[in-house]
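Entry type: protein chain
Record version: 2
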Amino acid sequence: MTVSNTNKTDTPDTSTELLGASTTASPAVGRKARLLLVDDHPIVRQGLALMLSGEPDLDVVGQAEDVPGALRLTAEVSPDLVVADLSMSGLSGLDLLKEIKLKHGNLPVLMLSMHDETVQAERALRAGARGYVMKQEATGTIITAIRQVLAGHIYLSDRMSSKLLGKLAGNASLGSSSPIERLSDREFQVFTLIGQGIGPRAIAEKLGLSVKTVEAHRENIKAKLGLGSGNELIRYAMQYQMDQTAVPT
């Protein structure tokens, strides 16, 4: 498990447009906003930290590669915002969201993920995220999202905002759902690991579940996705993973 912690203070936070109000407190005037980055890929994590280091109002005070490390650092460095990957080995970004909500109240979390927002953003928001950005987005978009969430608002792309508004308005064409959305958070986590070529026993070890429980999740996933066999599920999950990594920028 990798965690790192640096401490700095300085300039105020500058925020941009609003999308939705929140009770989350913004960083105190006169200091930089403190960010904790969580991603199990060191290159992604370090690249993001380097990008943010050039911003006068943002300060990366810690980095973690997994959920236990992120929770430990959250208690140690008291960040103003956690920027976390949705899919990590072992416990996922959704698990981190739930733990932060339980242990740290209104601390905002911005999800940064390779997964298509039209499938996963709503799931993340339901779990407590204050925004969702795809990793394929431009640098400026990620920085805008960070500042917007720090200002107490929710960040979503125009496309995702339209989808959610379409659902609220009962517009089927705008709010049409993917079969993946039928999966519970735990089922989606198991599904993601299946797509990475991981077998039931290894999934059980990663998630702290029994093999029997993992098998039950697999059966539920097959039923919800209309799949007839374990091999069909593996092919479907692997194709889904390939499609996610191939989302255009």
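Comment: The CA atoms of residues 8 and 59 lie 7 Å apart.
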